[in-house]
Sequence to fold (291 residues):
Amino acid sequence: MVAAVTQRHAIDRADSLDPRSLERSEQMLLGPWAIEHLFGVVAANLVGVCLAVAGWWGTSVSRSEGAAFGWLNLGVVGVLVVGLGNGWWLARGRRIVSLARRQVLRSPQLAPAVASCAGARVRRGDREIDGTVRAAQPVSNGQLVASPNMSLYHRDSCRLAQAKDVRVASRSRHERDGRTPCEVCLP
Amino acid sequence: MNSSYWRAWIRARWEKVVGAASALVGVVLAIAGWHGAANESLTTEQIPYLASGAVGGLIALGIGATLWLSADMRDEYFKLDELHTWLREHDGGSPTVEPADRSS
Fold:
């Protein structure tokens, strides 16, 4: 799945033959990492494996315990190098993913859902409106919407309610009409 | 399910497949190292098993875990990127409201 997604992204990103655009599309294959991070983690793993192999070879040819333990320490250093390199790679990726998550959640379209998750009080639409919204009046955030044919009611910001013939009503009205809360936006 | 299905399945999840294989190799190395060391009586003969089995096993396990977690992280990053792109394209797009029925 990841490979398919990355491939699609690479194709989407390279929207022209501009060298910088093409270079960027190549970088997108790595996701949250840049190419230098890949070089770094590969180098750390190669060095670590080389140290481990050298340690194993050293212990195999050593005739005294002291010398064998010395070579074994080299292998332990190899494990540490691999661990630090991979840990740095994962920490870097995690940081970028959390920054990306924050950036997406900062979007004004997601603000009501974010506020709701944060425990903020969301207006429940106490007044009975029953679809008598004035023409061309945009639905404000935090209201509960559904179309007459829907079996679920949504927040007005919910993706499942976008670009659909929805009307605002109170929670009690939606529930009286036999609708249940959407499991995506959790109104 | 034919072989082309499995080839496509593995190609789509190669990082997790390689990660799981690497972790499996790590476990096998650790067990082999323990088994080899247990059958030797001299410490100098046990240490090479420790150096190959334990050290190699730890490295393989580490690489496997890193590949697995990287695949998850990259997946999440691309999902966020898709969502971000969608939000940018639908900036300000709130649900449409049909003209109200004023007769009621």
The two ends of chain A are 31 Å apart (CA to CA). Chain A touches chain B through 70 residues (CB under 8 Å). Residues 65-105 of chain A form the longest helix (41 residues).
